[in-house]
Amino acid sequence: MKKIKPAFLPAILILCLLIGSIGNLTSVLGVPALLVVVLLGAGLYFGAPRLDHLSTRQLRWGIGLGLLAMLIAQVVVLHVMPNTVYHDPYRVLSQADQLAAGHMTWDITYFWRYANNVPLAYLLSLWLRLTQLVGLSTNLSVHLLSILVLDSFIALALHTIWQLSQRASLLVVAFGFFALSPFAYTYYLQVFYSDLPTMLVLLIIIRSLLNWSQKTSRQRWFAGSGLVVAVMLGAMLKPNLVVLLPALLIVGLILARQHLWRQAKLTLPILLIVLGFGLSLPATKVFDVAANYQPRTAFSFPATHWILMGYNQHSNGGYSGKDVGRAIKQPSQADRQRYNLKTIPKRIKTLGVVGVIRLWVVKLGIVLNVQGIQRWYNGGFRAAPSWYSNHAGFYQGLTVIGYVAATLLMWGALMLKLLRWRPDLTDPHQILALLAVTTALGYLAFHTLLWEVEPRYGQAILPLLWVALAAIPRQASQSRPRWANQASLLSGATASLVAFGAAGVLGAQLPQKQVIAAQRSQLSVQYHAKPKTVTPGTVLAEVVDVNAPANYFSVQIHAGSQVQVTLTNLATGQHYRLTMAGSVARLHHQLAAGQYRITVQNLTTRGQQVDVTHTYHYQLAAHPLTVNGQSQPTASLIYTCMQR
Fold first, then answer.
1. Cα 573 vs. chain centroid, distance in angstroms?
2. Rounded to whole angstroms, how far apart are CA atoms 274 and 283?
3. What is the pTM for the complete model shown?
4. Residues 209, 220: Cα–Cα separation, whole Å
């Protein structure tokens, strides 16, 4: 039996996950999250043998009913707590809505700057057109798409984990991670963006390679076709999927060195993956033509722009508004490229060897941080229910503890396996595990050593880590004491008490800026979104549901605009005058729960500009914007109501 010693790549991944674990424990909720991990880990250790004795019938019924309950809960969340999607996902959604309505124009500079989101906008527009044929609203269509992609990913992940491990206990744990943690009910459910489709694509790619050598010719034809399409779409949606190529090269070299290349029979699937990457380039051009998109290099950023931000120590290698502003001021893409190539070496030199290594560690901690899953691209709920707003600290704390604990528990189980693993590459499943580990390291290296970072980026490796956890062989199980079942139940119950108790006590110490109601979706002035010109005497009005007490209200108007903005309590008739501060009209006053009307009036003798978000079919808020009494259901002011 051929072995690889030492297990170098697994050791690097262990180090990365350790750094990520420390980064996730830095908040006030870190200690209770760690305690929950320990308790759940102990409970699973003692309870695993009992779970492994579940019959296939019991597993099917249990998982099936659990997934059904998850689906019901997802529908309830989307109905009760729709959020206000902002930043990049909203711009993609807005453009898709526009294309689906037949307006094949690109009116803001965003897509000229970030052309990688053009295919996503076009594909989303095709989905909206399809669902319009059966009478679905755009809002319902987007929610349906989120559920389909998310639940397909979860179901496929569970099926893959079972195929690789044949362990009931691991399948139950995976179900708990996906369906009982915030994973299925927060960012991936409430915001449709490229992150989740990328994870699904990665899972499909890995599944296509599963047991390839044992497939029949017919099975290989279907799997190969799906592999090419998955790689092509994945490369179009997220170009960083290219890290799969060096990962395949590394695994191929290891197999060749062990004289196992022919036995693995991976030549054809690797060629198909390369073909998929090759087809992504002409396919992108086809999508551009179909969407009537024409790149403009005067606005586009070169790839070095993200490398430049990746070595900005002031932003810890993340998004830098100053770097973006400076790039915008450059007259051409060539000038931006020259500036970047000149500045990047200076930044590295200023950091020095120690500074660069420190920055890499910080970036790795950021890219693997999952504490903010509820906040990713979520501008706040449109009108949070009172039961949520009145106990927001508790729910937010529970969300953080829940997902951090679930993530660290999975990482911990994987690290223990990686620590003892010496890959036996005569086993196709272990080849798959090695590819998953190598690809995960590729993603982490790409963002840590080269690119800019955001916490969302690290989630791309989630399906890879689960595949590795399931595919690496289990060690011989040790006997458990007679009281193991009771210890398992006690540990689980204690973990729940710790999570709920810590969320209640420490949740109050979380940042207290709680969004009560909001509509923050907009195309943004920085991307040359056009404001609405309000003629003299025009009155804009919009009703807002405020379901809990608040003490701050703001309405985005426009820089230099001279309009009068008031807020009226519809139950009492009390008026509040908002004061201008830059481009925003603000009110600092205690507001009781109830319905309020925002009124924007142009009392001057000339036109005034007001930032209004307008779509074609996507409804932004619960109540329409009215202009001189005329209702516009798909238009809205940009406002935020908070308890600060």
1. 42
2. 14
3. 0.94
4. 10
